[in-house]
Amino acid sequence: DSFKIRSPHDAVQLVTDLIGDEDREVFLVLALNSKNMINAIHRCHVGSINASIVHPREVFKSCILNNATSLIVAHNHPSGDPTPSREDIEVTKRLMEAGNILGIELLDHLVVGGTKFKSLKEQGYI
Prior knowledge:
5 strands; globular
């Protein structure tokens, strides 16, 4: 049975359960179908304690292979502070551009830290 994403809070709960207590940055891709049901969850990249290098090709590979029409990306900040870094904002912009070209819409980029989170969509970056 698939999990339907209705709001950032739905996705945050899932993401927090998966990577909330990791000691390194972990970048997740939630590949969604046209009904916002999760087709796949891909652990795209595991970074160092405070950095993660994410390439659009790695992010969209799982989306294409799983017939996604949209995606939500998420990563954790092991420090517990979910404030998006300049790099987080840059990655989000690059993923939006790549998604526009591929026809797979980036719905949100969530940053989780401890029990808190930030949605780059809610902050106006998407």
